Structure formats: C-alpha cells, structure tokens
Write the structure tokens for this entry.
Amino acid sequence: MSESRYDPRYDPRAPDEERPRPFSDLPPPPPDVVPGGEVYDWFVRGVDLLDNGDTNAAVQLLSHCAQAEPESRQVREALARAQFDIGMYDEARENFEWIISVNPADDYAQFGLGLAATKAGDLKSAVEHLALAAAMRPDIAYYGTALRGARAALTAAQR
C-alpha cells in the first residue's frame, strides 16, 4: 500500500473512539418532506405500493395522507392494512378502531381489528370483533375461519 493512498481516517487498526463515521463529511439528509402532488395522488400511489407488496413505502406515503386527511375512512383503512402487513399491530388497531368509531357496521374494519388484536395477543377482543365481522357477513368464509382460529387460541390460552 503506497503512502499516498493511505487514509488514517479509515484505518481499521485505529481505536474505536477515534474512527470517524462513514460519510460524516456529507451534509445531513433533508428533513422529512411532504411528497409532491395532491393527497389523492398520494393515496393512489400508496394503495399501489401496498398492492404490489412494498408495504414499508406504503405506510410512509399513507401516513402523509392520514395527516393531510385525518377524517378519510379509505385512507385510514389502507394505512391500517399496510401497518398490519409490516407488523405494526397496535397502530393498525388504532386505525381500525377509529373506522369503527365512525361506522360500527364496517365489517372489514371489525375483521381487521380482530386480526390485529389476535397478533397483538388480545384474544378476547379478537374473538369479539371477528364474531361481529362474521355475523355481519356470513358469506365471507375467511371471516369465519379467522374467528374459529381466534376462539381456539383463546381456549388454549385459558387452559
């Protein structure tokens, strides 16, 4: 290794407290910025991201939508779905609960809240909301399947 190419800042033998962070000479990243376009454009793009499996990006974009339009049930539902998909069960529960507070007859929100409660370990609440969803829409088989699974988990947990 020639002396002209040696850079002591990146010497692995240097003590940890003296080693600079990589890219420390670069400016900090810009603050969180609002995406370009209208809220509807963000929503459409967020749902596309969610449908195509890019749930982390969907959560970011749909969170901006929810801040801009906090009373939109469609935005809250899409955000809750994305949050559920990446394991943000408590946040998903909050959004599904908000939807139910506005429209208690929303079977999908009852179902989503039940699934999120199951994942969060609140099996009693899960059974309650899944039972409501299954009663509202007995024609949707996976509502009943989820309810039976939650009931079985609750029974096993009580033993």
Observations:
- The longest helix spans residues 141-158.
